[in-house]
Amino acid sequence: MTDAELADLRQSYSQRTLLEADVQPQAVAQFRQWLDEAVAAQLPEPAALTLATVDAATGQPSQRVVLLKGLPDDAGFLFFTNYDSRKGHELAGQPLAALNFFWPGLERQVRVEGVVEKAPENVSTEYFQSRPRGSQVGAWASPQSEVIGSREQLEAREHEVEARFQGQNPLPRPPHWGGYVLRPTRLEFWQGRPSRLHDRLVYERTEGGSDWKISRLAP
Ligand SMILES: Cc1cc2nc3c(=O)[nH]c(=O)nc-3n(C[C@H](O)[C@H](O)[C@H](O)COP(=O)(O)O)c2cc1C
Asked: Quick one: which atom of ligand 1 is closest to the CA of 53?
């Protein structure tokens, strides 16, 4: 593709609207409604989100896709990973993060910002042990985000883990693996509209309260 062709790639959005009168007063309830609609529309990977973290020492942001695994108490966003990974180290140094969901089939984007804490251990263990055995083995075998010598080395580690836990089902949860819950302070719902005059509604936590203030942003 040439740059001219690339510059010409654009889509017009006209499926839906997002109006103040139609949204829920609670931000996470509104999110759940949009997630349900993404699932109902059979979009690919509706629970996939881009997670942005920052290296507190350098200020360098980084991002990667993870899967949303729950909305505990309609008050947080739950995902699972390796606590010793790059994202794990970055969250330990700076527990602020941002999430992005993009559902092109519905012409929607949701941006979430907030404070991240580790999920309770029982939540992490329960989820870990509900995963397919191969994923449980993988979590023990893969030193996520570290440089490894080769694919063969990784597979050798996998076989070691299988031998170590032979006959055990489920596996114990590795201490370096578990959940995080992001407690949102701000969410933005974006609905594509014609002529780039999109709808953007932002929810911000009222001071000290459990309520949300809703504002409209210019597109
Ligand atoms: C669709 C998709 C889903 C993913 N889900 C997860 C997940 O739930 N947890 C996870 O740790 N990594 C997940 N990954 C891999 C991450 O994107 C990333 O490669 C990994 O977590 C290492 O990131 P880090 O080195 O920045 O810590 C997923 C990747 C894709 C493309």
From this structure: 26
Could you report the per-residue pLDDT of 60-78, keeping only the tens digit for each?
Answer: 999 999 999 999 999 999 9
Q: Which residues are catalytic?
A: 196
In 119-211 the beta strands, taken as DSSP E runs, fall at 177-191, 199-205
pLDDT band at 209 (very low <50, low <70, confident <90, very high): confident
Structural domains for the chain: 14-130+175-216 (2.30.110.10)
Across 95-133, b (16+ Cβ under 10 Å) vs e yields: bbbbbbbbbeebbbbbbbbbebebbeeebbbebbeebee
Q: Which residues line ligand 1 (CB under 6 A)?
A: 45, 48, 62, 64-67, 79-82, 85-87, 144-145
Q: Tens digit of pLDDT for each residue in 76-89?
A: 999 999 999 999 99
